Amino acid sequence: MAFDPERELSFSLADGTPLCVRSIRPEDRDFITEAFRRLSPESRYFRFWTRVRELNPRLIEEICSPDQKDHVAWVARHQTRDDIPGVGGASFWRLKEDATAAEVSFTVADEFQGRGVATLLLAVLWEHAVSLGITRLVGHVLHENVAMRAWWDALGATEQEAPRHWLTTLVLDESLLEDNSAGSSLRARLTQVRAWMNEENVLKD
């Protein structure tokens, strides 16, 4: 089942915060730039591995120009708060050397971290990836990023240590998810995303 990049998905966080999740578009450059500016220095460092204050315009252009096949990008935005430029975003790039794997990355606004945003975005990326024949998501996590490492570990991802970071690999097989809070939360979100996909196919039929 293919994803329709023109459709928006409506979700709520556990605390009731209403979100819309949709694919990133070229016209999103300004709000993505502002969302980046609002990140704490630590969040910027964990995402880009450098102490940058401004995003390179070329990188913004790249982020905002996904083809939704080899470069997939989704964003979560608050449904009722226009003053919040972005709640979170996630993307993956299919590996040139292995078309069944993709490198994944996440960014969540500081005030929304720890509230399930990354899990929601991972569920969307998971189903989108599977629809494209991708079976594994790999991530590069700095040694200092203890929270991200713990999350991947709780989901059942494998780790391989490198000099500065860990290479994590998550197989997109729901039966392999750990039987814990992280695994249960992801399973619940996967069920919601699949329901949206089924609704989309019914509408098309």
TrEMBL record:
<dbReference type="InterPro" id="IPR050832">
    <property type="entry name" value="Bact_Acetyltransf"/>
</dbReference>
<dbReference type="InterPro" id="IPR016181">
    <property type="entry name" value="Acyl_CoA_acyltransferase"/>
</dbReference>
<dbReference type="Pfam" id="PF13302">
    <property type="entry name" value="Acetyltransf_3"/>
</dbReference>
<dbReference type="InterPro" id="IPR000182">
    <property type="entry name" value="GNAT_dom"/>
</dbReference>
<keyword id="KW-0012">Acyltransferase</keyword>
<protein>
    <recommendedName>
        <fullName>N-acetyltransferase domain-containing protein</fullName>
    </recommendedName>
</protein>
<feature type="domain" description="N-acetyltransferase">
    <location>
        <begin position="19"/>
        <end position="178"/>
    </location>
</feature>
<keyword id="KW-0808">Transferase</keyword>
